[in-house]
């Protein structure tokens, strides 16, 4: 039973981690608290559903379309909706408030579009749903495949942030945008890039989750809430903390769903969040401010 819970948590946590890393980049680098990130995830799930059922293109191949499209869409959102807010903000606090209000409105726009296109029904599809036996336990193949892809994407992000000049610029802007500008880093361009990459990561997570979860147009707020909790738990701006927090959140949800009641998974999420705030308010990978 313990192995079953741990392995199931690992499979679910992979997709959660992509979503959380997306918000970590958007907030930690671009300083945008994006409350519409759940709608980005659900929109990608619908795109994967449409490609699978209407165009007969599987979600893994669909990632080659969904991820770049999400990148471009989020780039445009940042350049045309959020850049004016960045320019007028006198400090980080003002930018956070403005971005919360702007993306809160964007949430309803995206949700309304999805409701108009797909209605309020729940959707799912069958893809790699056959059972696979591992270590004496049976798991769905689609969950294993989703985790493998999520792990590969997370590794690519880690290498990109730590082994390339662009990644170094992104990390520099995350630490101190003013100092980054003084060493000839284009802060505006780097922030837009980070926001777009964050949206692409979230969309990738949504397409992977659609392989084994049922979804509808109104549940983006649930994923937004989970992403916010994971980012705060992990330490704002640290992708490593986001991965660890995503796995912990998945473990809490899986444990409660397996041993207690599936209806209490959200309560377990908030319970874990409260414990982190009480005993490590700076987050798992965060540092106390001097």
From TrEMBL:
Coiled-coil segments: none
Record-linked InterPro entries: ABC_transp_permease, BCAA_transport_permease
Localization terms from the record: Cell membrane
Short name of any one Pfam family annotated for the protein: BPD_transp_2
Organism whose genome encodes this protein: Parazoarcus communis SWub3 = DSM 12120
One Gene Ontology term from the biological process aspect of the record: amino acid transport
UniProt entry keywords in alphabetical sequence: Amino-acid transport, Cell membrane, Membrane, Transmembrane, Transmembrane helix, Transport
Signal peptide: none
Annotated membrane topology: Multi-pass membrane protein
Any one GO molecular-function label of the UniProt entry: transmembrane transporter activity
Regions crossing the membrane: 60-78, 99-120, 140-161, 191-215, 263-279
Keyword Membrane found: yes
Protein name from the UniProt record: Branched-chain amino acid ABC transporter permease
GO-annotated cellular components: plasma membrane
PANTHER family: AMINO ACID ABC TRANSPORTER PERMEASE PROTEIN, BRANCHED-CHAIN AMINO ACID TRANSPORT SYSTEM PERMEASE PROTEIN LIVH
Family the entry assigns: Belongs to the binding-protein-dependent transport system permease family. LivHM subfamily.
Superkingdom, taxonomy of origin: Bacteria
């Amino acid at each position: 039973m313990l192995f079953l819970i741990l392995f199931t948590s690992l499979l679910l946590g992979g997709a959660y981690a992509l979503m959380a890393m997306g918000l970590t980049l958007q907030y930690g680098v671009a300083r945008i608290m994006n409350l519409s990130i759940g709608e980005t995830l659900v929109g990608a799930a619908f795109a994967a559903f449409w490609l699978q059922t209407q165009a007969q293109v599987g979600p893994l191949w669909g990632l080659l379309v969904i991820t770049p499209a999400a990148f471009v869409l989020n780039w445009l959102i940042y350049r045309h909706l959020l850049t004016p807010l960045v320019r007028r903000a006198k400090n980080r606090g003002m930018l956070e408030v403005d971005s919360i209000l702007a993306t809160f409105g964007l949430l309803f726009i995206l949700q309304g579009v999805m409701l108009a296109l797909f209605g309020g029904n729940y959707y799912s599809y069958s893809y790699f749903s056959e059972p696979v036996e591992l270590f004496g336990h049976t798991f769905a193949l689609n969950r294993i495949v989703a985790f493998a892809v999520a792990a590969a994407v997370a590794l690519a992000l880690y290498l990109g942030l730590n082994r390339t000049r662009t990644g170094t610029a992104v990390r520099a802007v995350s630490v101190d945008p003013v100092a980054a500008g003084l060493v000839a880093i284009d802060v505006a361009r780097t922030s837009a890039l980070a926001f777009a990459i964050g949206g692409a990561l979230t969309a990738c997570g949504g397409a992977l989750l659609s392989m084994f979860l049922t979804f509808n147009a109104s549940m983006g707020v649930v994923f937004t809430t989970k992403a916010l909790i994971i980012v705060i738990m992990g330490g704002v701006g640290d992708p490593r903390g986001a991965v660890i927090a995503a796995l912990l959140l998945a473990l809490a949800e899986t444990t409660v769903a397996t041993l207690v009641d599936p209806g209490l998974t959200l309560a377990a999420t908030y319970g874990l969040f409260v414990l982190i705030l009480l005993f490590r308010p700076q987050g798992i990978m965060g540092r106390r401010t001097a």
